[in-house]
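Page 42, continued from yesterday. The earlier attempt failed because a stray header line got pasted into the input along with the sequence. Redoing it now with the clean sequence only.
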Amino acid sequence: MKRFNYRGRSVQGNIQRGQLEAPTQSAATDQLLRQGIIPLEIKLATENSSLLSISALLHRQLPLEVLVIFCRQLYSLTKAGVPLLRAFKGLEQSASHPLLRSTLAIVATELTNGHSLSTAMKQHPRVFSDLFVSMIHVGENTGRLDQTLLQLANYYQQEMDTR
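This time it went through. Structure tokens are written below.
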């Protein structure tokens, strides 16, 4: 798989930038179109190139409050038996934080492509910490993803209260 930097326009007309993995440039184009992004530019990423944008500078990391809400919502959806892909698409549409919204869209695409949830989340260290990804991995392997999400929500809530 090759890594591509892209710049595109969302359905709402907003410019979006990011990176994705695909075997070819046309596969990358197809992947963006499935996400609802009209590609304006797709370039092969070099080893040490990182796409830097104004929004990346403004949104360094996801606030703990947003992460706690996300964990609780995903817990409720998985506990209710909602399929993971449908849950992510629903949470993406209702997310108010732009970093979370764009990350959930990419994770949903990765899930569609057959990647595990922990693998998809690991690609977004600004949103999901190593602890978060490891816990999700354990939850996937034990079949107790819902309980893992509740534990994560409680952990981040306690971290927030401590701060």
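Notes: The chain has a mean pLDDT of 86.
Reminder to self: strip header lines before submitting.
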